[in-house]
Design brief:
The chain is an alpha+beta fold. The chain has three domains: 5-123, Orthogonal Bundle (Butyryl-Coa Dehydrogenase, subunit A, domain 1), CATH 1.10.540.10; 127-234, Butyryl-CoA Dehydrogenase, subunit A, domain 2, CATH 2.40.110.10; 243-383, Up-down Bundle (Butyryl-CoA Dehydrogenase, subunit A, domain 3). It has eleven helices and ten strands. It is globular.
């Protein structure tokens, strides 16, 4: 699609309305149960595929509809505004991370094998980078892929893997050259979950994002052909870095949208909730807090929209994406905290959505690059 971002507004809004209807009828009525179950039913992925909400910006030859990043973000925005962050985050990993690793780096055979099923929801994708004790520090990765004839044998373990319980294909980061230091000598492999030696650990218990399955994964003498290498041998770090702008912008979009959603819920609440003989919306503190919050959101929405336009033109650089990620996710945390405070004791009760928005917001400052890493990248650009 060659239209400029501002020229797509009408088409985007029509698409947004269809996403809103789907979320309202198929997601929100069941979401609290999925949160209690700490996993979304597998069939939900197929429903998302049937509705055309997975890999929406993939080319038609791979099952997509050939739109672009802006349409993918409409989907994320509406799930986040509806306070369904668990599904929004899982879909982002699947559609905006894994699918684009394969699209932009994979062979034609890999694209044909995985992408059409990822669009329908028959195949769920995950990225296995983080390891116990190392976080996302690629220099500390211990998972090893040893060459054996025309194959590689993978051994290691991963943790905090989004979509880990449902994943059918996992992008595994492994060390293929142990003679070099740091992040050098890493390679990405496409590993099917039905491979002998692949096993899933427990569905990890988290303080938030409960419906998003987050898992330990284990690889024990998994034999994969060299054709499973995603990108070039020993150059996996470059592949990962190449998609980070997209991932961080998606997190930024989600953060602003979640903040917009919880603000709207809070505004409705303070208009109804009474204390000391009048609604709390009449109190000066409430007015000022909501004014500050709305301003914070509006400013960063404008910045994120600017970043979307830059990304679509291939002009979003690392420092700007880092600024967006740190600014929006930190703001999301502040907004959720302010809104919960305005709910008072009721905000601490699970029956009110603001409590979920509060705990779900916390991880935003951690995954996709912590706030501290974002500041390091920004300062590095400023200071050289």
């Amino acid at each position: 699609m060659t239209m400029q971002y501002h020229e797509m507004k009408e088409e985007l809004e029509q698409f947004r309305e269809s996403v809103q209807r789907f979320v309202k009828t198929e997601i929100t009525p069941h979401y609290e149960q999925w949160e209690r179950d700490e996993i979304v039913p597998r069939d939900v992925w197929r429903k998302l595929g049937q509705q055309g909400l997975l890999g929406v910006d993939l080319p038609e030859e791979y099952g997509g509809v050939g739109t672009n990043f802006a349409f993918s973000m409409v989907i994320l925005e509406e799930f986040m505004r509806a306070n369904c962050a668990s599904i929004g985050g899982s879909m982002t990993v699947h559609s905006d991370v894994v699918a684009h690793y394969i699209l932009n780096t994979g062979t034609e055979e890999q694209k044909q094998r995985y992408l059409p099923d990822m669009v329908t929801g028959e195949c769920v994708g995950a990225v296995a980078m983080t390891e116990p004790g190392t976080g996302s520090d690629l220099q500390g990765i211990r998972t090893v892929a040893r060459k054996d004839g025309g194959d590689y044998i993978i051994n290691g373990s991963k943790t905090f893997i989004t979509n880990g319980q449902h994943a059918d294909v996992v992008v595994v980061v492994a060390k293929t050259n142990t003679e070099v230091s740091g992040a050098k000598g890493t390679t990405l492999f496409l590993v099917d979950s039905d491979s002998p030696g692949f096993s899933r650990g427990r569905n990890l218990e988290k303080i938030g994002m409960h419906a998003s399955d987050t898992s330990e994964l284990f690889f024990e003498d998994i034999r994969v052909p060299s054709t499973s290498i995603l990108g070039e041998l020993d150059r996996g770090f470059g592949v990962l870095m190449g998609e980070l702008q997209r991932e961080r912008l998606a997190l930024s979009v989600g953060a602003v949208s979640a903040a917009e959603g919880v603000l709207a819920e809070t505004v409705a609440y303070v208009k109804e909730r009474k204390a000391f003989g009048s609604t709390i919306a009449t109190f000066q503190n409430t007015k000022f807090k909501l004014a500050e919050t709305a301003t914070d959101i509006r400013v960063l929405r404008a910045f994120v929209e600017e970043c979307k336009g830059a990304f679509l033109k291939g002009e979003l650089d690392v420092p700007t994406a880092s600024m967006a990620k740190v600014a929006t996710t930190e703001m999301q945390g502040r907004v959720a905290d302010t809104c919960l405070q305005l709910f008072g004791g009721y905000g601490y009760m699970k029956e009110y959505g603001v409590s979920r928005a509060f705990v779900d917001a916390r991880v935003q400052r951690i995954y996709g690059g912590t706030s501290e890493i974002m500041k390091e990248l920004i300062s590095r650009d400023l200071l050289g």
